[in-house]
Design a protein that fits this description.
With 152 residues, this protein is an alpha+beta fold. The chain has two helices and ten strands. The longest helix is centred in the last third of the chain and has 26 residues, at 110-135. It starts with a strand and ends with a strand.
């Protein structure tokens, strides 16, 4: 029996798969693997990579906080922010990271300092995930909308 997965932000439904085999979740206390029939859990998400596996295919997302509701037949990820890891723009992420580093080095008021620190943290997580995916090959297998697998 497969497990349904939904990745949701306040703005939109980012991803939905009714028949995943496994979900790897970036919890605040470390990664958590979820298989069908998992015990119910409600926990906080950290910053990191969310992976959804179906057969040999995988989908990857960068998650920036939130909560996850794990049930025996469904995983609902309520992310503060979430991005499809395959759509990340490395040049834009690098620019945001460098800008945040410069702002932090200049010394900012506390409220601006917090925002710059969050921007820097998000950029570093996104770069780490994007580089890890790229290191696994140029054409990963992905889950597509109709449930079939295709090379991207």
């Amino acid at each position: 029996m497969p497990i349904a997965v939904e990745v949701v932000t306040q703005e939109k439904l980012v991803f939905s798969e009714p028949e995943a085999d496994m979900v790897i979740i970036p919890g605040v206390e470390g990664e958590m693997g979820v298989l069908p029939h998992h015990a119910p859990v409600l926990t906080t998400l950290g910053y990191g990579e969310l992976t959804v596996r179906k057969g040999r295919a995988e989908e990857h997302f960068v998650i920036y906080g939130g909560v996850v509701d794990v049930r025996p037949d469904k995983v609902v990820v309520l992310a503060d922010l979430a991005e499809d890891a395959y759509g990340l723009n490395e040049a834009a992420i690098e620019a945001a990271r460098e800008s945040a580093r410069k702002l932090l080095a200049e010394g900012l008021p506390p409220e601006a300092n917090r925002e710059a620190a969050l921007t820097l943290r998000r950029a570093e997580v996104a770069l780490r995930v994007q580089r890890r995916i790229r290191s696994h090959g140029a054409s990963p297998l992905r889950i597509i909308e109709n449930g079939d697998q295709a090379e991207d």
